Amino acid sequence: MNKNALSLITQKPASLGIPGLMASQASKSPGGTGASKAATAKGPWGRLEQFPFFLEAPAHLLDRFPLPNPKPRWFVNSSEASQALDRMSRSGMPPEILHAINQPANRAFHGDQIVFFPPPAALLKLDCKTRTSIYRELRRYPANADIVGPVLIPNNNVEEWFANTQIRPELIQLIKQMSYPRGDALAFSDISVLMGFVKGEAEARALVSVLTRTRTLMLKLVLDSNSKLTETKNYWSAGGQRKGHSSTSLIQAMIDTQDGEKLDIVHLLPPLPRRLLYTYADLSSVVEGEMPDCHWSSLNFFNSHPEPFYLEARLAASAFTERLIPIKPPFKFGDTIVFLDNQKGNAFHSCVYLADDVVFTKNGRNLLSPWVLQTMEHVRKTYLFENNGRIQGYRARESGTV
Questions:
Q1: Cα distances (angstroms) measured from residue 128 to each of 121, 136, 353
Q2: What residues pair up with 186 in beta bridges, in sequence order?
Q3: Rounded Cα distance, 141 and 125, in Å
Q4: Statement: residue 121 has pLDDT above 50
Q5: Cβ–Cβ under 8 Å, residues 197 and 21
Q6: Which DSSP string do the residues of 299-368 spell out, in sequence order?
Q7: How many angstroms separate the Cα of 131 from the Cα of each of 127, 147, 237?
Q8: Which range (28-42, 204-218, 263-277) has the least confidence?
Q9: pLDDT over 90 at 206, yes or no
């Protein structure tokens, strides 16, 4: 892939109707709701246990932004409005919605766009197939933030996703009713409609907080007398990229101290991702001119001090092509996983492979998108939902090829 192919277009996850922010994850302490132990997996990394749990955005961040507008809005480019409405009509949009948004009172001009105000009651009644078709059309226009980046439920189970929350069952049922498939996941884009059913501001804020939840992971390395110590230490040393890091001595010390000890792999990460994991970019990051994104996070993975150089998309593209070489699976600790579009090979997401198909990722360039651990399957569902791209692995040049 040539240098021009990596223009680094950043994909953004769900927006929740909060200006400039996408739905995301929260809380520094990984102990949140819905946690359960997954099956143990063995490999060159040793023996790992996965503990999934949910994170939610903290109130001090959400309080900086207004609550979602309870009036649904659809944005369409003025020059394409007739064609867009025709496509939505042919996809099954009910006549009552088409009639409503054609009324002067239910449309407005905003720059070079038309804003339509569909009736909430009609949106609530949309069947799943029609909602999917209409929102596929509206996804073409970035201003439809909640549709471009919906709340994603990768396990397709709304009840499980909102278990152990204080959200009323009636609201959860409405979310389930208005959810629709996006690739292999469920998506929810109608928080504006949902705002019409809350009892007051307190419930609205609680609902917004819960809708930011995401599923992430805690990984623990099980160390005992049966561990293949040499293989495990070699794996986490990442082929010599971790000069001066004490991961191998830490693994040895854990075995010497107590047989059967479990080591949280956060202690095996390089300094920067160890510091960032389960946290958010703070407002001081704006001083650099751009918020950190997935590519900044991937390229700085082994750096003790982050390079602001990688905040600029063009320069990040050059770093990918100059510092890394393409590789094939199996991937190893520290490899960069890049999501490329099928047409031009542009990179629209990147993350760093850890072990057992788990990656270190930041899903968006915004305040409410923290650094988390997720499975490759989870990230695929987030970004490759329309067979719109492919995955390519990269490794530092000094580490050799596969």
A1: 15, 12, 35
A2: 153, 181
A3: 23
A4: yes
A5: no
A6: HTTT-SS--GGGGSHHHHHHHHHHHEEEE-SSP-TT-EEEEEETTT--EEEEEEEEETTEEEEE-SSSTT
A7: 6, 11, 48
A8: 28-42
A9: yes
